[in-house]
Amino acid sequence: MKKLVEVIAKALVNDPDAVVVAEQVKDDEIILTLTVAPADMGKVIGKQGRIAKAIRSVLKAAATKEEKRVVLDIIE
Question: CATH says 2-75 is which class?
Answer without folding.
Answer: alpha beta
